[in-house]
Design goal:
By secondary structure, the protein is an alpha+beta fold. 18% of the residues lie in helices and 42% in strands.
Length: 169
Amino acid sequence: MADNVITGFAVVFGDETVIASEFREKIARGAFTRTLKEQPDVVMLLDHDSGRVLGRTSAGTLWLQENSAGLYFSLTVDPSTPEGQTALGTVARQDVRSCSFGFRVRSEVWEDGGDRLPLRTITDVDLFELTLTAFPAYPTTTAALRATSNNEAARRRIEMAQRKRGILK
């Protein structure tokens, strides 16, 4: 079903953000090359909540690709689950339109900030999760319902699944 696919950039390379008012951070192009070659089982969550799994690479419901812009994802959402309904509904309305990610830094470069905060450039990570969130550390990340000519059909399927679960009358 093409109408239940959320796509976007979980990471945009080179964009800076401030972490905990302590330092600036950016992700370097190629930071995911090694970890993606190793094919980790990455999960997509709602707000970093491991109890709200939306998809995973090992199940084929989450697809990742590193390109020159950043880390692109395509997530096939199950509209019959409460988490799937929440994700599809909030992303379709653009209440949630950003991402975050869970990772372990393998390699980084620090630069003195001079009169600014120090800058950490992350060059290699172990990636283990992506998340849809309203409050991203990196505001340039994106998440949107994949544009199709049949979004009305997706809305009807979501409503039908909600009725089955007693959410809609």
